[in-house]
């Protein structure tokens, strides 16, 4: 201790001759690098472990899905197996190929026969429709003839004949030329014939009947005063018997020296009510004749009505005068007309129908038998 210890002063002064010691280089520590490497390796191990776990789970999921698919495929295989079994059973029930070929041939033949039947049916139905229309045309002509003969209805008969002509035109058959020619002639005759206004005459006569009740003034009546032209003859005279005879007949005979005055006597026992009734009955009879087309009855009834007005009513009365003029005008109106004869037209249409039916019967051929086609090579 004593040798090595140095005095304080010596320590404070640096030694001049002693060499300066340099510090040794610092060596880096290796412990930190290893720690970092270890951490990296641990992280990599964790990552590898997580990836492995994910792969395991993914494989498990895939295995489950594959198991489900396998199960579905098994189910489909079972259903296919069942279907195959059913098809096998059905195939076992089917007839052999020869029998199927025979049935196919029969079906083909049946279709061919059915096609022929359809064509035949269409032909028959088409002919039936035409026959019905032609029968309708004949019926229209019969109705027109009946309307002309019974009622003399020109307008209705013209419409019916026009309808029959349109039906024949729809047929477009050259054989109907003669029938259509007769129809054209009948239509021309009907168009040239004037239709009498029977309804108008009936109404006008009815209006005159209503005015009969308004007629009040009768013709002046001759009143016998009991005097004769030989009233001054004495009873004792030789001409007294002649005077008595003249006195009797003077009650029924009147000598009028004023011919310009229209004085007419009434019949014995005749009154205003009876005259009105006679005039009304004559007008009513004229109405009936106008509706039924009875020209003689119509003319006779209006003549009687005119005579009643002339003989029993005062002609100076304007009302009686106007009624007399109206009766004269109505008596000149026609109630009948000469209608065309439809017999020739109807006969022509019937002849056309008969010719058409004969041609249709000749054109119809029997349907071939089903085995006829098979026998044909």
Automatic annotation (TrEMBL):
Keyword GTP-binding applies: no
Residue ranges that the Swiss-Prot or TrEMBL entry lists as coiled coil: 56-90
InterPro entries: HemX (IPR007470)
Amino acid composition bias (Basic and acidic residues), ranges on this chain: 1-11
Transmembrane segments: 33-54
Keyword Plastid: no
Pfam families: HemX
GO molecular function: methyltransferase activity
Assigned keywords, A-Z: Coiled coil, Membrane, Methyltransferase, Transferase, Transmembrane, Transmembrane helix
Residues covered by region (Disordered): 1-25
Biological processes, Gene Ontology terms: methylation
PANTHER family recorded: PROTEIN HEMX
Record-given protein name: Uroporphyrin-III methyltransferase
Organism for this UniProt entry: Pseudomonas kilonensis
């Amino acid at each position: 201790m004593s040798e090595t210890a140095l005095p304080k002063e010596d320590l404070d002064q640096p030694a001049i001759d002693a060499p300066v010691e340099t510090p040794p280089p610092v060596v880096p520590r290796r412990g930190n690098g290893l720690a970092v490497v270890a951490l990296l390796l641990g992280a990599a191990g964790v990552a590898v472990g997580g990836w492995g776990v994910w792969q395991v789970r993914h494989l498990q999921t895939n295995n489950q899905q594959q198991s489900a698919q396998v199960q579905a495929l098994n189910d489909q295989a079972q259903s296919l197996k069942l279907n195959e079994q059913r098809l096998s059973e059905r195939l076992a029930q089917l007839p052999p190929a020869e029998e199927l070929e025979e049935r196919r041939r029969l079906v083909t033949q049946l279709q061919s026969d059915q096609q022929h039947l359809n064509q035949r049916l269409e032909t028959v139905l088409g002919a039936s429709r035409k026959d019905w229309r032609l029968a309708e045309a004949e019926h229209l002509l019969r109705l027109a003839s009946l309307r002309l003969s019974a009622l003399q209805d020109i307008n209705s008969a013209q419409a019916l004949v026009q309808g029959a002509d349109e039906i024949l035109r729809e047929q477009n058959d050259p054989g109907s030329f003669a029938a259509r020619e007769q129809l054209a002639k009948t239509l021309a005759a009907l168009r040239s014939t004037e239709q009498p206004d029977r309804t108008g005459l009936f109404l006008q006569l009815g209006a005159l009947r209503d005015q009969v009740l308004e007629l009040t003034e009768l013709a002046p009546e001759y009143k016998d005063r009991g005097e004769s032209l030989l009233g001054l003859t004495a009873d004792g005279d030789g001409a007294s018997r002649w005077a008595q005879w003249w006195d009797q007949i003077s009650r029924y005979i009147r000598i009028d020296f004023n011919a310009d005055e229209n004085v007419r006597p009434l019949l014995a026992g005749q009154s205003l009510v009876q005259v009105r009734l006679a005039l009304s009955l004559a007008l009513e009879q004229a109405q009936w004749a106008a509706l039924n087309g009875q020209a003689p009855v119509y003319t006779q009834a209006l003549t009687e009505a005119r005579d009643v007005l002339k003989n029993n009513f005062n002609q100076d009365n304007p009302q009686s005068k106007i009624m007399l003029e109206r009766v004269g005008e109505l008596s000149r109106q026609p109630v009948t007309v000469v209608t065309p004869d439809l017999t020739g037209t109807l006969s022509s249409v019937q002849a056309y129908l008969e010719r058409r039916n004969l041609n249709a019967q000749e054109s119809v051929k029997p349907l071939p038998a089903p085995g006829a086609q098979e026998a044909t090579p």
